[in-house]
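Lab notebook: predicted structure, single chain.

Context: the supervisor wants predicted structures on file for every construct in the current expression panel, including those that have not yet been purified. This is the next one on the list. No modifications to the sequence; it matches the entry in the shared construct table.
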Amino acid sequence: MASSVKTDKQRLAQTFGKAAKHYDDYALIQRYSGDKLMDLASNELGNIVLDAGCGTGYFSQQWKQQGKYVIALDLSHQMLQVAQQQQRADSYLQSDIEHCAIRDKSIDIVFSNLAMQWCDNLPIAIKTLMRTLNASGSLCFSTLGTSTLQEIRDAWLSIDDNAHINPFLSFNEIETACTGFKTQLFTENVVEQYDSLHELFASLKGVGANYLQGGRQKGLMTRQKYRQLEKMWKTESGKYLLTYQLVIGKISHD
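Prediction complete. Output recorded below exactly as produced.
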């Protein structure tokens, strides 16, 4: 992430853990991004898949249904519990992507859907995952770029000077993090529409994306602030928009 503030991985895991039971009900952008990533990875060869940042294991299950041996890795114990209860993978590992204890050259495909934006050091995360791949293996990943949640940032600008979203890396910074490997990268903005701010914020909380680096800002969300946000955010159509800048890539050793 584009910040000198370190991510509190324990608190991040707790935030996602709270969302685990209802995560699949809200994970629309995760599903959209993961489907794109599955298409990108569809021609990859090999039998052993590491789902790095697997969440509830929705895509682990898709890989398993293709006959692959799937290792589901996530920072959150509760997320892995949900995946294990559904038998969505073959083995489960609670670990941080940046420090995952997977044997070198033991994986054929690394699949990482909307997890790497939570890494403090993307180049290290990529090198760590690439180390686990065999010589012909590929890392297929999606993350989020700087336009993500821009509506939250813009709406709050009129109210206070606090940071209300986490910083995201630019496309160029993500591209630079892949230096040293053969890389394909593309980006796409996906705009979600909501009928109310309440529904929009519920969607963020529902997937654990309400984690904020450095903790919550002081001061409660007052009714007055909420009304100001509604006024600033509402479009002419009466909808509330939320942008995600997807950055999707495939990296290999040669």
